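Hi team, as promised in this morning's meeting, here are the two structures we talked about. I've kept the exact order from the run log so nobody has to guess. The first one is mostly here for context; it's the second one we should focus on when we meet again. Sequence first, then the predicted structure tokens.
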Amino acid sequence: MMAVMRLTSALSFLVDEAIDVPDGDAFLTTLAARLVSDGVALTGGALTQAAPHPVIERRTWLWRADTGRVIEALDLARSADPAQNHVARNWLDGLGTGVIQEDPAGGPSDGAMLGWAASRPFSGAESELLREVARFAAAPLALLAARSTLATLLTTYLGRRSAAQVLAGRSRREPGEIIRAALLYADLRGFTELSEATEAREVIVALDAWFDRIAGAVHAFGGEVLKFIGDGVLAIFPVGERNAAAACDAALRAVAAARAGMDHLNRARATQDVAPLSFGTALHLGEMLWGNIGTADRLDFTAIGPAVNLVSRLEGLCRPLGQTVLVSGTFAAETTQLLIPLGEHGLRGIAAPCAVFAPQP
């Protein structure tokens, strides 16, 4: 008669449930709790995975038994050996003397590590169970890493909102969603002249520096960059979790931060004897349609609607009016910040004249 192997609680989790765990935090928390229920006297644990991200090299989740909570550490450094994770090793060393660490997803080359600490040396049975846990964890951790890679790459190239739609399975032409938001459109001045007079690599460096300032400011104040359009940026501060006034105020603060960032950048460019970069920005409040459009087999997420048309046309008035930032009357009616009225102006392709304002100096 064939003997039936009885799995421990931890191994049962890895076989039956771990495939559906959404992230490293939940994986480590659940696995640690199961090991404790199996009688392993843990004081802490750590899970590290490589992160295919433009800035982050590794993500490490750190668990403490006394609180049952997990904190996450991000490693931004680039190293020759991705397995050299001092954050996890120092964490485990600080929580106990009995530490065992494994490479559950195939070895040090992928930067994966699962480690545990106890207040005393692990017994032979505990060490054997932890080795089995590392072996059983390889498949669900590989799947978790693959899902994380996909989500990171989509977010990097499409943005958070579009990536979420793709991950939800929206891969066909659809009308999309109506978004009410404070809209920001910003455009780098003199880009054509810069491109004609400057070596291509230097143009890319300048573009990256500009996008770092404007997009970084947008994200810092809770906005989202929807698209990079040549040397321009379309971003939104959605109305929903915060009201229209808060969204508009956040957009104005982001513009102020971007201007400060560009001033700092231009001081650095002056020391390098290169021309300063200037830009124009327009702000409007309204609704837009954010949807999947294109051909049947080549799609793109695009914002359309009267509000998008107005904010892009309004930005075109910055140079004629001698302003860096212009605000529509609709936006001005909601913000709590003081603005200077500049009168009503016709916008190309827009039927009604637009009341235009500028921030106070």
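And here is the second protein, the one for discussion:
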Amino acid sequence: MIKYLSFLIFYSVTGAYAQSKPATKYALFQASTTHSGVYPQSNYSSFGNLKWKFKSNGKIYSSPTAINGVIYIGSEDYYLYAIDKETGRSLWKFKTGGAVDSSPAVYENVAYFGSFDGYYYAVNAKTGRLIWKFKTGGEKLVGNKGLWGMTPSNLYMEDQYDFYLSSPVLDLNDHHLTIYFGSSDGNLYALNAHTGKKKWTFKTNGIIHTSPALYNGMVCFGSWDTYLYALDAASGKLKWKFKTAEQPVYHQLEGIQSSPTCVNGSVYFGCRDGHFYSLNANTGKLLWKVDTGGSWVLTTAAVKDGILYVTTSDTYLFLALDAKTGTEKFRFKANGYLYSSAAVSGNTAYFGDFSGKLFAINLTTGKSSGTFSTEGRIENSKGLLNKDTLDFIYLVRSKDTAAYATSVAIMNQLYKLGPIVSSPAISSGVIYFGSTDGYLYALNLR
């Protein structure tokens, strides 16, 4: 698959089991502070009827957080929303000065999240009233002049596949609550979660849009400078860093967009360099890596019973890998780019694709046990999909394949499908996820 026709590229956020002393009464997208993507065991295996859908006024890239009967999610319309879990009715909304593409963390009636206005926020989870806000050095999308060789070469071009801001993780240690998050200013921040006061920062040489993971007193995260970092969570001092591969010409855009998963002494993450990695969590040494055929890996792996579940972008693959060796167990091909991290419950994994389809995959057979289509896909798939599958070349037709304007125009067409970039959350037999058609969906499982 070719996203930008000037050269071949292949395609996150957004787990692992809980940290040493996990905080209680706590919710974060992808289920835990170490990003497991694993939800409580259930016997559900497919999709039932639509329970409700809530319409925002912007694309939704943010992943939902479900806690205390409320669903929290951000939108590109500048709002963080609190939605009643049963009815889909808006309880409150909080307006920022930019798109809310960070997924919220909620702890003890406080919701934490970031916005493209350059602020990180703490708001009352019951009322939506501001508690504090913290100013970063500013947020932006990754980009470059003449991106990937596209024309005109002197034009600064934003990467249209850089969808997320770093989402927060919370750590309750010795009764002190700390919030960690990355920023486009290149810093990983640690703040006092009660006051918003800065505890420490760690500077990298690239934008940080990955979400940090906590594991055994460390905070792990990736940067666009091509390094995966592990810091002492208390002091912010570097414990180790691991360098991924880079393209000599396009290295600024071959960094780490996938958020790490930490479990059983290993750190797992994907990269835009076309590999998925396993590192020793204590030393940062490479244990194994899987070549994804050039495809970016931007999502966060779910881990259950010694198996990793991860998705790729342009190859449209959902992969099951042995956590110890990286050996492939099975693969399933979707209908479009995969930026939605899998949510695993029982013997089923759930994730969405860029064609607007949500999948349920049986983890024993590796086959689909059900699908659901977004409103955008239902309304606009005819003429946009080639045999029900996203095909960039099919959409390009006679347009100038080297022009950035062509890529922008094609992406705007794809958005009509209601792509699912949001990673789903599961609670009490219902799966929740956002779409770029502006809807937050609540879908019963069966």
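Starting points for discussion:
The first strand starts at residue 26 and ends at 28.
Residues 404-414 form the longest helix (11 residues).
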